[in-house]
Design a protein that fits this description.
Blueprint (H helix, E strand, L loop, with lengths): L1 H10 L5 H30 L3 H10 L2 E5 L2 E6 L2 E4 L8 H6 L32 H8 L3 H5 L2 E6 L2 E6 L3 H17 L10 E3 L20 E5 L6 H4 L13 H8 L3 E3 L10 E4 L27
Antiparallel strand pairs: 1-2, 2-3, 4-5, 6-7, 7-9, 8-9
The structure holds zinc ion.
The site of zinc ion has 5 residues, from strand 7.
Length: 294
């Protein structure tokens, strides 16, 4: 087609020689642009989302692409990575898909007051994912628990996160020798494993899998204890050093939530890895979510 146009224009006295070359080049360029646009439209369906790659890395799940949609195999069941529904913040927590788990970015750094109602990074959990990874029943999780010494307290945690708990303890040990006053946060602990739902909800707590810990209950602040007509008054007494020690080893902190629970730490390495947030953020309207102690 290009050759034909070139010959025609070169033979016509109404076109200059320069124009004769310019027209075929424009057509070739346009065809190339159309081709590039087509390939960039097709790419997202076959490229594995960054969040999904992280779920494979940290949860050992498998996935496959079926007609442009990613399906995640969780033992006996399979779930779409993206259920295609637009959700507001409360729905992302109550009925999340796997993609929604990355909807709110978890940010480390200096402790700050959380004031945005939808800022609850990590509270969206797909139960089937945690069951596939850590155990589907109370008995299955109990048989996977290991006793560890955690800065002087004997605790039972899931065997697959025991090394992460030990790594936190290894950070806290020298810190406590340097600042003995921090010890008060690490006594009277609320504990690790408890097969239970999140207070006031049907959703299973991360404590059910032996991957979470509540530190000193008496030093904790919790949104339900402080709720008033003016909304939630964020508060915290936990020090930066303790939060840093946990976050450095893959644990998120309940003090980073608008619905705060400051004694609560939970092993969620996928939320502390920058590479897991490379996908576009799902849209939402940002209505305050509900629920209880995690
Ligand atoms: Zn907790």
């Amino acid at each position: 087609m290009c050759d034909k146009v070139g010959i025609q224009t070169a033979a016509s006295p109404r076109y200059s020689v320069r124009a004769a070359f310019r027209l075929p080049l424009l057509i070739v360029g346009a065809l190339l642009l159309v081709g590039l646009a087509g390939s960039s439209r097709a790419a997202p369906s076959s490229d594995k989302p960054a969040g999904l790659r992280c779920l494979e890395r940290y949860y050992g799940v498998r996935s496959e692409n079926q007609d442009g949609h990613w399906l995640v195999h969780l033992g006996k069941s399979s779930l779409p990575y993206d259920d295609g529904l637009n959700k507001h913040a409360a729905q992302r927590i109550e009925t999340p898909d796997l993609q929604d788990m990355f909807g709110e970015r978890y940010r480390t750094g200096p402790i700050r007051k959380v004031q945005r109602a939808e800022e609850d990074p990590g509270r969206a959990r797909v139960e089937a994912l945690f069951m596939a990874r850590y155990g589907r029943t109370q008995g299955a999780v109990v048989s996977a628990l290991l006793p560890i010494d955690f800065v002087g307290t004997r605790l039972r945690v899931h065997r697959w996160v025991a090394s992460a708990f030990r790594a936190v303890a290894a950070r806290l040990g020298p810190l406590l020798r340097q600042k003995p006053e921090l010890r008060e946060f690490l006594v009277g602990m609320g504990g690790t494993f408890a097969w239970r739902p999140i207070a006031g909800t049907q959703r299973r707590s991360a404590h059910s899998y032996g991957i979470a810990i509540d530190l000193n209950v008496k030093r904790s602040h919790y949104w339900r204890w402080r709720m008033n007509n003016a909304g939630l008054a964020w508060d915290n007494s936990y020090p930066q050093e303790i939060v840093d020690a946990f976050e450095s080893e893959g644990f998120i902190w309940g003090g980073r939530w608008y619905h705060y629970d400051t004694m609560h730490f939970e092993y969620r390495p996928e939320l502390l890895d920058d590479a897991c947030y490379a996908d576009p953020v799902p849209t939402g309207m940002g209505r305050p979510s509900q629920g209880g102690m995690e």
